[in-house]
Amino acid sequence: MAVKNKLLRVAVVGTGYFGQYHIAAWQRMPEIDVVAICSSDALQAESTQARFQIPKHFNNLGTMLDAVDVDLIDLVTPPASHVSLVSECLNAGTAVICQKPFCESLEQAEQLVKLIREYDGFVAIHENFRFQPWYQHIKSIIDSGSLGDLYEIRFNLRPGDGQGPEAYLQRQPYFQQQKRFAIQETGIHFIDVFRFLFGEVSGLFAKLSKLNPVIAGEDAGIVVLQFQNGARGILNINRLSDHCATDLRRTMGELSVEGSQGTVHLNGDGQITFRAHGDVELKQHDFAWQDIDFGGDCVYTTNRHIVDHLLYQKPVHNLAADYLINRRIEEKVYASSAAGQWLEM
After folding, report:
1. Which three-class secondary structure state does DSSP give residue 33?
2. 271 Cβ contact list (under 8 Å, min separation 6)
3. Residue 299 and residue 128 in contact, taking contact as beta carbons nearer than 8 Å
4. Which phi and psi angles does 56 have, rounded to 5°?
């Protein structure tokens, strides 16, 4: 899908914790005109409109679509709203960016992708972790061949925000009620990062657990992934533990990529080091990135990627149909943990 004019009229639906990052990112792009926001919380809609000086606010998507000429709807809302809101946007003929996790279940996501195809619509998923600058740089290191044959990718997720009865309440309180939590809410980001860096998954084993009794879903676990290229991935999750970082949410943990010619390591401050095979010296990889809002300005970079497709016909990587692969892997992770066995994709 391409928009002929070089100015995109954008409306943002959802004014919660993460919605502020989306609005701020849009307002930094010269080709974007944020024409309206929409929230079911009237007070929040008014305060967000005043804070960002947006022309109009609404409490209902249908009312907004009738009142405002919009090219792109940015849905920063929970999964339970995705089917109805995306369907309404498709019917109105607007392009959509939808927050992850896409829908409440794989079945819902597959049905919605079918509807998107019937409408010949454009729906991209706001999977922003692969657009974090450190992963973009690590991808360039891998593509350069300096690691040699890839052996293993490993990430220890340690945000340190899951302890005690008040866990998650200050920032995203709905986390406590999610029956599928650590994988569906956060782990799926790193499943996507692993695919971005290492390619497609052929099989997996998972063992998930709940450490904090006040929450409904899992908050810890280990997922072992086999990639089609023969390499292995290990996602080790514990939301109660932290890691060494000035901002625990910058990377949410530490990553290592091992190959026949060397190893790359990402620490919690977004710093990348490389050690050649057989060497004892760690070499720091300097790369440019901006410490703005969340995850090295990845909301802006993700939005920019989508805008460059809509306005300039550049390739786009995160369409809803593509994201079904992540949801299918997620489904296998939960099934593997329940069955206690290795599952092929």
Report:
1. strand
2. 284
3. yes
4. -140, 150
Kindly state the greatest CA–CA separation across the chain.
Answer: 65
- Give the chain's domains with CATH numbers: 8-128+300-319 (3.40.50.720), 129-290+326-344 (3.30.360.10)
Q: What are phi and psi of 136, to 5 degrees?
A: -65, -40
Report residue 274 as tokens: 């490389």
pLDDT at 62: 96
The residue ranges of the chain whose pLDDT is under 70 are: 1-5
DSSP string, 242-284: --S-SSHHHHSEEEEEEETTEEEEE-TTS-EEEEETT----EE
- Pairing type for strands 150-157 and 201-209 reads unpaired
Q: No. of H helices and E strands in the chain?
A: 10, 15
Cα distances (angstroms) measured from residue 207 to each of 182, 233, 245, 269: 12, 14, 27, 28
The whole-angstrom separation of Cα 194 and Cα 202 is: 13
Helices (H), the chain: 19-26, 42-52, 61-67, 82-92, 106-119, 133-144, 188-198, 248-251, 298-312, 320-339
* 8 Å CB contact between 324 and 123: no
Q: Are 295 and 250 in contact (CB under 8 A)?
A: yes
pTM of the predicted protein model: 0.94
pLDDT of residue 99: 95
